[in-house]
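Sequence only, no structure available. Ideas?
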Amino acid sequence: MKQVVGRVFIWFWAYLIALPIAAQSSFTVVPLGVKGGLQESNLSAYLVAPAGSSAYVCLDAGTVYSGVEKAIARNTLAGSTGQAIRTRIKGYLISHPHLDHVAGLLLGAPDDTAKTIYGLPGCLATLQNDYLNWRAWPNFGSGGNAPALQKYQLRELAPGQETPLANTALSVQAFPLSHGKPYPSTAFLVRSGSSYLLYLGDTGADAVEQTQNLRALWQAVRPLVQAHQLKAIFIETSYPNSQPTSQLFGHLTPALLLQELEVLGQLTGAAALRGLPVVITHIKPGNEDAIKAQLLKGNTLPVKLIFPEQGQRLEF
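Reply:
I predicted one. Tokens follow.
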């Protein structure tokens, strides 16, 4: 009898070991705002933290307070809205200083706690000189017009150089994008351990912008895609395909986005893209149905298209 029980026990553990191990998440993302304009309570902002952590950084900050309110209502975040903003958000990464990407940060500054704002030098210079100047808004920054209240430390990122993000287990590399000449934007490659998440601020297509910024970015992440270390791409699609090229203002359409993803697929091999989440951001209000339909119809790549909702919890 003991021998039978022993054989059953061994068989049971062998069975458990043979079961496929579910892929574990590397990142938790909470969209605080997903739209590309008009709706001031739902503008570009995405909290990201290592899976299992509540120490977030905020990728862009068009809407913060209303987004945290929505996340708490959906049981995605805990505590009061003010407490979550002050204690859960450890810093901000700003892709470019247009109002729909910084308004939530500016409006919430009086009630926020001391944090670091990361960005490329030109972005931070605009934020400090044009907003945090005692004319447009009090100077919560660390430089500029006196008195500097020193609540926010503005830290410049060097393109392609990895920088640790204070009070988190994350680090970031910044890559320049073109958002309608001569306006620059930024892509942030966020790392947690050996896993990566790529967030693009507003960007036009290389062919329209007459640059190679997106191709250079795809080249940089190619080995991460091939090694399945890149867990998700967040990228904008602002207008439907009917929008004239002359009126894109440094944005993408479904057709242009899919062309750019084709370039990435050519570099990595299409098989490497299988199941890769591509999160569609910055859709202009009123265009949601058309953009979603055009993306789903036009997509021939094996990526997984995701259309995020404000306040939900995403795991990658």
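The longest strand covers residues 184-192.
Hope that gets you unstuck.
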